[in-house]
Design brief:
Strand content: under 5%
Radius of gyration: 14 Å
Structural class: mainly alpha
Largest sheet: none
Helix content: over 70%
Number of strands: 0
Order of helices and strands: HHHHHH
Shape: globular
Distance between the termini: 32 Å
Number of helices: 6
Length: 137
């Protein structure tokens, strides 16, 4: 049993290093997305979808290929942080954007465009400091 089950995923401890490069800001929306999606598709479902999006995005951004797959959201975010730091700030934003586009396309094909947009809006609102409960009414 995972003792972290039910807890909000957070940035890995070494994410402080990423703050100086802006990588933490790139990973933060993923944490909010995982928070929205894991009750619906489970942590393993989120990690599987995330891993699939990464593999598909590697065709456009070769640097994403250094990502090491993980079975937990925290492990996935730690690996993504490490990968984006290795890519470097000049390409990390574009690579992360391509990854997010691929992820949302895959998600939309699974749960529909309307629900995908709603989840993204909630995650985006959370990224800007608004309360999640306000968006879900």
């Amino acid at each position: 049993m995972d003792h972290n089950e039910g807890q909000r995923p957070r940035l890995p401890d070494d994410a402080d290093k990423a703050n100086s490069t802006g990588t933490a800001a790139l990973v933060a929306p993923w944490l909010l997305l995982s928070e929205q999606l894991t009750p619906l598709i489970g942590e393993s479902g989120f990690c599987a979808l995330f891993g699939r999006a990464l593999r598909l995005s590697t065709a456009r951004f070769e640097g994403l290929g250094s990502y090491e797959s993980a079975r937990t959201v925290a492990g996935s975010m730690m690996s993504l942080t490490r990968t984006l730091n290795e890519i470097g700030p000049e390409h990390a934003g574009a690579a992360n954007g391509a990854l997010l586009d691929t992820f949302t396309t895959l998600l939309s094909s699974l749960i529909g465009e309307a629900l995908t947009k709603q989840l993204l809006n909630v995650a985006q609102a959370g990224a800007h400091g608004q309360k999640h409960g306000q968006e879900q009414k």
